[in-house]
Amino acid sequence: MKAIWKDTVIAQSDETVVVEGNHYFPAESVSMEFLKDSDTISGCPWKGTANYYNIDVDGETNPDAAWYYPDPKDAASEIRGRIAFWKGVQIIE
């Protein structure tokens, strides 16, 4: 699987975990040079608190387009250490 934004591969892995239709990529498969910390957080009753990244490619920013759960609840333990994408980021095989 690949996560692509602005014709740039942000992440690539054969080991994604799909939760609620979202592919969670192992953190080591993500090109972190494109991700910048965001102050945004959100909560999910069964997964826990999510933190976000802005994606920056060639001077363009896609705010809060990636998220992760730094300390997921037990029910979502399979997404620990993984990052998911949305907001126009294409997920393709």
- What's the total helix number? 0
Output mean pLDDT. Answer: 98
CATH superfamily: Domain of unknown function (DUF427)
Stretches where pLDDT falls below 50 for ≥5 residues?
none
Approximate shape: globular
Distance N to C terminus: 4 Å
Major sheet: order of its strands?
Answer: 3-4-8-7-6-5
Compute the number of strand runs.
9
Helix content: under 10%
CATH class: Mainly Beta
CATH architecture: Beta Complex
- Taken in chain order, the helices and strands follow as EEEEEEEEE
Number of domains: 1
Specify the biggest β-sheet: 6 strands, antiparallel
**Beta fraction:** over 45%
Look up the CATH topology. Metal Binding Protein, Guanine Nucleotide Exchange Factor, Chain A
Q: Which class best fits the helix and strand makeup?
A: mainly beta
Radius of gyration: 12 Å
Explain this structure to me?
- The chain has 93 residues and is an all-beta fold.
- The protein has one domain: Beta Complex (Metal Binding Protein, Guanine Nucleotide Exchange Factor, Chain A).
- Helices cover 0% and strands 57% of the residues.
- The protein contains no helices and 9 strands.
- Strands 3-4-8-7-6-5 form a 6-stranded antiparallel β-sheet, with no helix packed on it.
- The protein starts with a strand and ends with a strand.
Topology, element by element:
Layout: E1 2-5, E2 8-12, E3 17-19, E4 22-26, E5 35-44, E6 48-57, E7 60-68, E8 82-85, E9 90-92
Antiparallel strand pairs: 1-2, 1-9, 3-4, 4-8, 5-6, 6-7, 7-8
Task: Give structural attributes.
Metal Binding Protein, Guanine Nucleotide Exchange Factor, Chain A, six-stranded antiparallel β-sheet, three-stranded antiparallel β-sheet, globular
